[in-house]
Design brief:
By secondary structure, the protein is of the alpha/beta class. It has a five-stranded mixed β-barrel. Strands 4-5 form a two-stranded antiparallel ribbon. Helix 3 packs parallel to helix 4. The longest helix has 20 residues. It is globular. The mean pLDDT is about 90.
Length: about 210
């Protein structure tokens, strides 16, 4: 597995070299997104109030940000589960020209297909509490604060070697967690056989 330190905006060449299991650190401009922003844009037909051609890294995150001495201060940062946003995943990649999505868990088949077509990857935190990364994040601006609220607004971040992340969906349609599930299922059968346990064994139900 390789390690990369990438700076946005990301290019096709940047993401094409990323393979499942690679470690990534991210610098450059990014923006946050949760369900309310995607619903506001794609379901309610509003226009995204900023361009994404030079800010093509999206973070599935609802940060805790306060104003201190007239400036925004990041208090808590924790990427949330990307699979929650599968309804809008493919549209987000396509319409916002994304090259990287940062979030926990994974995404579904339609988003993965669009990521393969548009050359985009998904990365997840690698065994680190993201709150330890606050010093690597600078709050630049916020959009749709009044319309969507503090958590659901689109926050502009400047990242400084943020990470580590693991590449869990590459731009060729491969999914780290799908491969892991297959491996676990195979090893489970081997373990059950060694222990003399039938493969259809179920835990005792409690009433």
């Amino acid at each position: 597995m390789a390690e990369y330190h990438l700076t946005g905006p990301l290019s096709d060449e940047d993401v094409k070299k990323l393979k499942l299991g690679d470690t990534v650190y991210i610098s450059g401009e990014a923006f946050t997104c949760r369900s309310r922003l995607q619903k506001y844009i794609f379901d309610e037909n509003n226009t995204l109030p900023f361009p994404t051609d030079k800010r093509n890294i999206l973070i599935h995150n609802g940060p805790i940000v306060i104003k201190e001495n007239g400036k925004w201060k990041l208090v808590s940062f924790m990427p949330t589960s990307s699979i929650r946003f599968e309804k809008w995943g493919a549209k987000s990649v396509d319409k916002w020209n994304l090259k990287m999505i940062v979030g926990k868990t994974t995404m579904g088949a339609s988003t993965m297909a669009m990521m393969k077509e548009k050359k985009c990857v998904h990365v997840s935190p690698r065994s680190v509490s993201p709150n330890l990364w606050i010093d690597s994040i600078e709050v630049e601006n916020v959009y749709l604060y009044d319309e969507l609220g503090r958590i659901e607004a689109a926050w502009f971040f400047k990242l400084h070697d943020l990470g580590p992340f693991i590449v869990d969906i590459d731009c060729e349609g491969n999914n780290y967690f799908d491969k892991l599930d297959i491996e676990i299922a195979e090893r489970k059968e081997e373990a059950l056989e060694k222990l003399g346990i039938e493969s259809d064994f179920e835990f005792t139900k409690l009433y």
